[in-house]
């Protein structure tokens, strides 16, 4: 009896230990369910032309429901030792920029040297490998190293974001816009191979300086990603009389790729491209992001999910259960509704037998302009428009691709273009069967 009691007490004790041990273990799930992770992969800091310290910016994203962030400065990584003149920092970020920084991270964190009032008065920009330890938290928030490879062809800016890059890459040139993009793409691909990590290269803001036309984007078929929404107000999201809007440009490029180049379409990213963080300036944070469906919040897993198209772009609308059912050829998803808000979904695509008329734009003397041609309204046509929270589209088999764009009745919280509403963009589907038709 005594022995038994002792034994059962011991057993109880042991089981308590085991239970507490296993519950501690369970916090690292070995087969987690995929879930949505929110992130921005286009952000500028004082390391290039942004106006706040990198860890201040990262802390803003961390405390605003983001799960991952890539700081992507122009042709530089936040690494090594970099001191900035105090006068430059104050001029750019405002008189209280250092006070705010010290208040957030503490006086011992902030490194200042030199005599105040002299050119030697400098402040150190902390490298990513140092400050990430203050911000990262498992299954909550991670930093991914990024760079905006910022080059040009002639007067045309060609900017591409490399996410999860290991070593800085300086932009490389080429004999044309297409060659320039391809050359940079190859450099990134080589680094991905030699470093053994996923690196995502996406083409930024094609309408910025009208740098890249729809036809050129179509032609660089190795590039699979571009920004369907970039929150910088200077990137000409809506185009103009001579240039297609960013969304139309997406449809033109994807139509050319699938119908004529036997190539997969581009997927659309949403980003901030933020430079200004103090409530002044026009290029602010929090306007556009991506939601990625992945089991793990880790750089490789996020990028693999993006490569498979398991993500959507958003400027305010949240989605769930995005499904392309191959059996029934149905694209469907759920809109996570906000109270008192209504949603309109447009299913956009191009049909196999579309009107292929394309007119070259000319100047007033009839000289051809090196900008996107004018295409018929069959390209990127609205195939269906539905209200409600469970939009569904049945493919007839005639679509080269279909994508959905959801527009909320609610204004964007910080518009970057006129009359902007909150939106979400899903990736094109139904295109695979049109490739390799030659066989
Ligand atoms: Zn740029
Ligand atoms: Zn940028």
Describe this structure in words.
With 439 residues, the chain is an alpha+beta fold. It has a single domain (31-80, 127-434), classed as Metal-dependent hydrolases (TIM Barrel, Alpha-Beta Barrel), CATH 3.20.20.140. The protein contains nine helices and 21 strands. The chain has helices spanning 2-26, 54-62, 86-93, 97-105, 128-135, 177-195, 214-219, 246-260, 299-307; strands spanning 35-40, 68-74, 82-85, 112-113, 122-125, 142-153, 156-163, 200-203, 225-230, 267-271, 289-294, 311-314, 318-325, 330-336, 343-351, 358-359, 374-375, 381-387, 392-394, 399-411, 421-425. Helix 2 (54-62) runs parallel beside helix 5. It binds zinc ion (ZN) (2 copies). One zinc ion binds next to loops.
Topology:
Layout: H1 2-26, E1 35-40, H2 54-62, E2 68-74, E3 82-85, H3 86-93, H4 97-105, E4 112-113, E5 122-125, H5 128-135, E6 142-153, E7 156-163, H6 177-195, E8 200-203, H7 214-219, E9 225-230, H8 246-260, E10 267-271, E11 289-294, H9 299-307, E12 311-314, E13 318-325, E14 330-336, E15 343-351, E16 358-359, E17 374-375, E18 381-387, E19 392-394, E20 399-411, E21 421-425
Parallel strand pairs: 1-2, 2-6, 9-10
Antiparallel strand pairs: 1-11, 3-5, 4-5, 6-7, 7-8, 11-12, 12-21, 13-14, 14-19, 15-18, 15-20, 16-17, 20-21
Helix pairs in contact: 2-5
Bound molecules: zinc ion (2 copies).
One zinc ion is lined by residues 148, 150, 159, 204-205.
């Amino acid at each position: 009896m005594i022995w038994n009691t002792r034994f059962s007490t011991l057993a109880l004790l042991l089981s308590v230990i085991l239970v507490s041990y296993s519950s501690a273990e369970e916090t690292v799930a070995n087969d987690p369910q995929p879930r949505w992770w929110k992130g921005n992969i286009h952000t500028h800091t004082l390391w290039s032309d942004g106006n706040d310290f990198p860890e201040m910016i990262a802390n803003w994203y961390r405390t605003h429901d983001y799960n991952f962030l890539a700081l992507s400065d122009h042709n530089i990584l936040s690494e090594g030792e970099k001191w900035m003149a105090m006068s430059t920092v104050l001029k750019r970020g405002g008189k209280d920029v250092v006070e705010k920084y010290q208040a957030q991270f503490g006086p011992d964190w902030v490194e200042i040297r030199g005599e105040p009032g002299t050119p030697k008065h400098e402040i150190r920009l902390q490298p990513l490998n140092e400050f990430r330890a203050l911000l990262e938290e498992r299954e909550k928030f991670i930093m991914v190293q990024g760079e905006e490879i910022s080059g040009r062809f002639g007067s045309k800016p060609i900017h591409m974001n490399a996410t999860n890059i290991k070593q800085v890459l300086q932009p490389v040139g080429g004999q044309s816009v297409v060659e320039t993009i391809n050359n940079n793409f190859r450099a990134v691909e080589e680094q991905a191979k030699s470093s053994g990590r996923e690196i995502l290269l996406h083409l930024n803001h094609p309408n910025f300086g009208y740098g890249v036309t729809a036809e050129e984007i179509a032609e660089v078929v190795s590039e699979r990603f571009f920004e369907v929404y970039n929150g910088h107000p200077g990137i000409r999201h809506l185009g103009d009389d001579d240039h297609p809007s960013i969304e139309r440009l997406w449809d033109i490029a994807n139509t050319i790729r699938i119908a004529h180049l036997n190539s997969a379409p581009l997927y659309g990213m949403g980003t901030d491209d933020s430079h200004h963080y103090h409530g002044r300036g026009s290029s602010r944070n929090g306007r556009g992001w991506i939601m990625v469906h992945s089991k793990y919040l880790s750089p490789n897993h996020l990028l693999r999910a993006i490569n498979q198209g398991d993500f959507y772009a958003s400027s305010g609308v949240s989605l769930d259960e995005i499904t392309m059912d191959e059996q029934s050829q149905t694209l469907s998803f759920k809109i996570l509704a906000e109270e008192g808000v209504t949603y309109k979904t447009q299913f956009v695509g191009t049909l196999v037998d579309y009107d292929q008329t394309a007119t070259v734009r000319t100047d007033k003397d009839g000289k051809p302009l090196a900008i996107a041609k004018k295409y018929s309204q069959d390209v990127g046509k609205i195939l269906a428009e539905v209200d409600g929270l469970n939009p569904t589209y049945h493919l007839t088999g005639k679509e080269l691709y279909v994508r959905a764009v959801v527009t909320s009745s609610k204004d964007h919280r910080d518009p970057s273009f006129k009359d902007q509403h909150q939106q979400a963009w899903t990736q094109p589907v139904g295109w695979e069967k049109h490739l390799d038709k030659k066989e």
